Amino acid sequence: MTKRSGILTTVLVVLAMALSAAPSRGATPYKIGFSGPLTGDGAYYGEASKEGIELAVEEINKAGGIKGVPIQVVYEDDRNNTADAQTVLLKLAQIDKVPLIIGINTSSVTMATCKKAQELGVVQYSIGSNPKIGQSCSDYSFLLQGNDLEQGLEFAKIGQSLKLDKAVVVYMNNDYGIGNKNAFVDSAKKAGIQVLAEVPLQPEGKDYRTEVLRVKSLNPSLVAFVAYGAEGSVFLRQAKELGLQAAFVGDTNWGDDSMWKLAGDALVGMIALQAGAHTSPAYQKYAAAFRAKYKKDPSIWSEYFYDEIYLAAKAIEMGGYTGAGIKEATKKICASFVGASGPKQLDARNYVRWSFDWVKWTAGGKLVPVSK
Q1: Stated pTM of the model
Q2: Where are the beta strands (DSSP E) in 53-120?
Q3: Residue in 200, 257, 250, 253 with CA at minimum distance from that of residue 230
Q4: Cα–Cα dist 1/50, whole Å
């Protein structure tokens, strides 16, 4: 064999390997639906979710897709609104013919659509976390963030650790907030923490000074804070403005670096929950790829949906491109799956078991670990 023919053979082998890895050009993509907030007050969550999704899709398709077939995500904006989400479900299921929808960001949306999704044979991957979801939805709904009973218990643990025994719980007046609030109240009683009041925040509110003054009048040592970024940042800024002095413990929304852009130095001193496993090799690999693609640090919401795409691809590969097949495959895959956002082992009601780190906001917008 001549040197030239040897080089040619090597080139052909490399080319053949590349072609075998790449998705087939003529293959019809496996479509996965996305239902999430891309506009409105919740748009940040949808955009962060989309960044994680696009990174995972790019990686999977570059590696050959699912047995040579690429995946494609069909994005629909539900605005975190239950009526819009029901319309989105019908569109994705009946027009786009998807067997799986990811991106369901809230408990209310999950519960408003899960029965119809089951009827249509469509699997839902949701990050809704209200305890009622597991009771009201079917095994077509997978709750891949956790159960608020665990989050409420963690709030009480922080209160105990800080020796704070008089609390007010401030919460979004929706399924997510109410579930967390109830879990905290129950856990606080067992922990010997007196709950002075339960103060609801109406979704999409722009002025919460009345609620701030009510909390201030009670002089709590602890505020258990369950709120989305847009509304929660309004409350926190107004609490700082009106001189509310208390230790704030925030839910997983507030364990995300990006919340500084919304609330600024009103966050300083808050201890927040951070879900996932940010010291794991899986997270570090994902975070490096995210920074390379987007030139910024990842949001916690990005990592959840990055993992959901990988779960979806594995479930389609194992179970086929049907809702029933994806449902059964997801149960099997979650038993051993460990992603950027941590393990995905499911309990009997399809909730992922939640684990938390405690982090504290410091001046300049830095989150630092807090020892348990």
Answers
A1: 0.82
A2: 71-77, 100-104
A3: 253
A4: 51
